[in-house]
Amino acid sequence: MAHAGVNPDTVMTFAIGSRAIGRDEPPFVIAEAGVNHNGDPSLAIRLIDAASDAGADAVKFQTFDARSLATAQAERAAYQRGSGDGSSQRAMLESIQLPDDLWADLARHAEDRRIAFLSTPFDEHSVSVLARLRLGAFKVGSGDLTNALLLRAVGRLGVGVILSTGMGTIEEVDDALRELRGAGAASVALLHCASIYPAAIEDVNLRAIDTLRDRFGVLVGFSDHTEGSLASILAVARGAVIIEKHLTLDRSLPGPDHAASLEPAEFTGLVTAIHDAWRALGDGRKRPRPGEREIMRVARRSLVARRALPAGHVVQTGDLDAKRPGTGISPMRVDAVVGRRLVVAVEIEHVLVPEDLDPPLERQV
Asked: Is 310 in the same domain as 253?
């Protein structure tokens, strides 16, 4: 069966608002505020401010109804234990759930701070809450990679979707893309990630970025759950066009995601490093950089006379040596020089130029 990646209408195109995302654009950096507000609206506002101050392109939260997301019996993951109130996952989620009417206020504050506002819905009710905000894109988390009900609800909105692929197989990603596109998603970008909190560097598997891009022909980014910034920087070098990283105001705060997050100063450093890494990639053309031109004159060599030679002398290989500076005829053209006559007498170590020869050698630009 053909996989879901070949779609000429969506291949390698994505935008959030007026911001184009692609291989020729700086990486789009998402500050994942997630649930690091701990259910406190004022903390959510401060996270938006911190993301904006750090230079992120977007700040992203998580929108959910705890009772729609988890049963009363659902256990917490190991990294969530000891966080929040109560023993069940639902109780923890209820303690950090934000009210539906707050999301519009948060989106407006993000607009005031000139940063894109995103949120990941975890249930169909939350999809409808966020749909009213007319967001530039929707994010689907790794946990819902295999949730056809949610994928279809998001796809029906007809907007761009960023889909995380943690815990997934290539076949599951294929199926999820088919669900989103079949429901009407305008375009889809994938995020590779390891859904481990925190993820060890050996679990990151950044070559999967290439696998996803080559298999599905879509833009691919990286959701970084490691400690520190190294994996994100390496992902940019691997071609990731979106980087998502958790942001907290204080790693010591109670809550499930703070420990694997960056604090504001660290996030600012990450944004700088990401853009430096992208600039270091260049355009891929192998050619001298402008700053190398002067070094070429100094470090490269020219053909020079090994000894004094009279005018009219027919140049032989033994008459020539290669020495600095590189302002004359390149030694790579030695075969074109041999056999030509000198039109002037030259001294030892004279740097040959095309006009010294008969017939004259064509100058190279």
From this structure: no
